[in-house]
Amino acid sequence: MDRSDTEKRIKKLRVEIARLREAYHVEMRPEVTDEVYDSLTRELRALLKEYPEFEDPSAPENRVAGQPLEKFEKVRHATRMLSLNDAFSEEELYDWEKRVKKLIPGRKMKYFSEVKFDGLAVSLTYKRGKFVRGATRGDGFVGEDITENLKTIKTIPLFLAGAPEHLEVRGEAVMSKRTLADLNQIQTKKGLPLFANTRNAAAGSLRQLDPRLAAARKLDFYAYDIAEGMELPHSEEHALLRKLGFPVEPHELLAESIPEVIGFVKKIEKLRAGLPYGTDGVVVSVNEPELQKTLGVVGKAPRYMVAYKYAAERATTVVKNILVNVGRTGVLTPLAVFEPTLVAGSTVSKATLHNADQIERLDVRVGDTVVIQKAGDVIPEVVEALPKLRSGKEKKFKMPEHCPVCGTKIVKRELVAHICPNKKCPAKNERYLEHFVSVLEIYELGPKNLRRFKDEGLISDAADIFTLKKEDIEVLERFGEKSAENIIAEIKAKKKIPLSRLLWALGILHVGEETARDLAREFGTLEKLVSSNLEEINDIENIGPIVARSVYEFFHDKNNLQFIEKLKKNGVRIESYKLSAKSSKLRGLSFVLTGTLETMSREIAKEKIIVAGGKVSGAVSASTTYVVAGADPGRSYSESRQTRMSSKLRSAQKLGVQILSEDEFLKMLG
Question: Do 301 and 325 fall into the same domain?
């Protein structure tokens, strides 16, 4: 994007992020998952990092949330409820540490790590040990009084023994995964919409005006901070909260280095699926309160804390193009192509759109911002378009009327499937695909892998193999990063193909390894072979009329020529056949070979002539110096071959070209 387009994109993102924030924090009706929201926010931050002139301190991304509704009494927080900056990689954790150390050089510090809950942040105020008020975060400065609803949560103490005069505790109201499952069963029976996740369910529960409804949702509470009442290292705050009777998540770590923190992050990542509540990361804090004061707050977030978030199952990206691949059954599968995007721990650059009806239902257009998800063992899929982020330049997509591989008119069957009915379509020929990779010796691509890639819509034909990327493969079940790297490395190594090997791999009828070598040796380049006529091909030694006709027709079929062009477009380089002379013994001499040689094949004889500086032709002409005639020439040849050989000898005699026996030829070679 140029500067103008970037500015427009930033404005679009700001408007949409503000709208989504309002829907979630204020209206308590989230329209997208946190993962989608985070993905849009990351894109905005990346653009602002590249174009800092568009930074705006009053912009929506620098606010914690929207304004509270009038339905609940407003509550002003004595201490602002902050949001946290995110880190999505180990590198970003190290970057955070560098920023912290730069602000407090030479100061020793410890890091406290704890589980990041996927619930609703709330503040609890106690006077002389009695719970007197509970509030939502709201915009960070002003929240909403939800005291009566919070009182229904059994894990929130209503009285604290031994507490200070004034105490404000902050924590997370959460719904267990088990409770969510039970709640959705009830919703299903009532014909009501299901809750997407535990966080949305918890937020909706605390927005009930009738506390009895909130109580029925069976929420839990976990404390994680003391905002008012006493000042302690963060690790000691957790200890005190437990002593006062608050539930505190048991998984935590006081560490002296970021590598220790990373070890904790990895540990929780393994455990999170089995935890009773939702969690999307780990919160890391500078433990010492005096250092926290020094580091302070910038914008909406404290410098002394960071939230490490695990790879999202969903992310947003922009569709650059929509391609159509043809599977082995002929079904056309549209694929969205976009910049490499991180989702579910893997970087992907393509996502399936399934079929034309799905594209129409989602209203996905080229240029759209879309939500992609990775789930199960399939290629990532597009699940939603975000039309509010459109610039007006997006283009609607139409399924092709003809097969993109063979040109056959497409038919629509099975309700939504567009199918190529051509039984001979190269995209449907698995054996051809296997032959192609076998000849090129791409050993990592066995039949099962090829079948899988076709079924997932990653490839239609052999040319598509050269468009595969590591991120396309590693997201598939049973592959992984190392396997994907090996496959891509081998494909990359085979993008440079000798002409003879390509001719063999193309699967031309009657053309095997030896014939492919003969064709390459005779014509030298693919361009010369493609432009040759039937007679020129037929004149090549060891190639009869049937083979010549097959080769000629292959290179006069537009579909085959389109396939070859597609190979080139996808990065394949075809090496011309070159056999350079190593001596000048036969320089200036031109030979025609006929009959069967006893001591060597004609192919070897040709190579010996060329290496010695001579030339070899398939037909006798005035420029021919010698015709080499094998002994007993009719012994192993068909009648047509004998006729052709005899005609060469007659032409030599007519033109006065000297005829050499095999012995004379060998003496000349020396």
Answer: no
pLDDT at 27: 56
Is 208 found in the same domain as 81?
Answer: yes
**Mean pLDDT computed over 265-287:** 92
Which amino acid appears at position 125 of this protein? T
Angle between helices 177-190 and 198-206 (to 10 degrees): 70
CA nearest neighbour of 502 among 440, 411, 570? 440
Residue 67 lies in a domain: no
The Cα 474–Cα 456 span in angstroms is 13
Q: What's the total number of domains in the chain? A: 5
The domain in which residue 659 lies consists of: 590-669
What percent of the chain is modeled with pLDDT above 70? 91
Residue 624 near residue 656 (C-beta atoms within 8 A): no
Is the CB of residue 530 less than 8 Å from the CB of residue 561?
A: yes
Rama region for 28: left / alpha / beta (φ>0; ψ in -120 to 50; rest):
left
pLDDT greater than 60 at residue 640: no
3-state secondary structure of 309: strand
Q: Are 144 and 73 in contact (CB under 8 A)?
A: yes
Contacts of 499 (CB under 8 A, 6+ apart): 520, 524, 525, 526, 574, 575, 576, 577
Does the structure show a pLDDT above 60 at 639?
no
**Looking at the structure, do residues 144 and 274 belong to the same domain, yes or no?**
yes
Burial class (CB within 10 angstroms; exposed 0-12, middle 13-18, buried 19+) of 423: exposed
Angle at 500 between CA 498 and CA 505, to 5 degrees: 95
Amino acid identity, residue 134? G
Whether 159 is in a domain gets the answer: yes
Catalytic residues: 116
CATH number at residue 92: 3.30.470.30
Report the C-alpha gap between 551 and 518 in whole angstroms. 12
**pLDDT confidence of residue 619:** 80
Same domain membership, residue 198 and residue 87? yes
Are 427 and 326 within 8 A, CB to CB? yes
- The model's pLDDT over 594-622, given as tens digits with 9 standing for 90+, comes to 888 888 877 788 888 988 888 888 788 88
CA dihedral 193, 196, 197, 202 (to 10 degrees): -40
pTM of the model: 0.51
Token match 């192509």: residue?
337
Residue 425's nearest CA partner among 528, 326, 516, 280 is 326
User: Is residue 457, in this structure, part of any structural domain at all?
Assistant: yes
Query: Residue 80 is inside which H or E element, if any?
Result: none
- Phi, psi (degrees; rounded to nearest 5) at 499: -55, -45
